[in-house]
Amino acid sequence: MAFDSMLYRKVLGQFATGVTLVTTLRDGKPWAMTANSFTSISLSPPIVMVSVSHGLTTNEAIRQSGGFAVNILRADQMWIAKRFASRDKPADPFSDIETHTGLTGAPLLRDCLGWVECRLVDQTEQGDHTVFFGGVEDMSLQNQSDPLLYYSSGYARIEPTPQQKVGVAEGKLIFFDWEAGNY
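Below the sequence we write its predicted structure tokens.
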């Protein structure tokens, strides 16, 4: 049986992921790409990973800078995700985005859900990507809002209600409204 790459993409597209902006330095200047292939690997020590295609400039930029940051995007920051996923970026793609410089020099978004800043601790070549492992040097929880998701080849969102608690009964999720005192 021949491998069906389109079916592979469709099947994996059923796994909803968060959307991030991976930032680093390229030749001493801020650089970024939109990514959803990001995950926590270890709690002790804190290590995360991000996967970057071999053909992307970001791949070489992370190698050269020795560090990167992962900024977790809010649902209303889809425009940032689209900008940095596009090959047609403005001359200064950060000009209207409020950032500050982290320990590694990577730009950190001031108004995202949160970010982790990492020093490159390892990397491995897997297929057409490099998997970069970063030791977390700094992090910040910025605010709580709707996260930006990627699902079935498109952006999506969820709208969590503040103050809800989740329990499981008879295989169903039950949301308890603590303020109203009922289910």
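The helical segments are 5-12, 57-65, 78-85.
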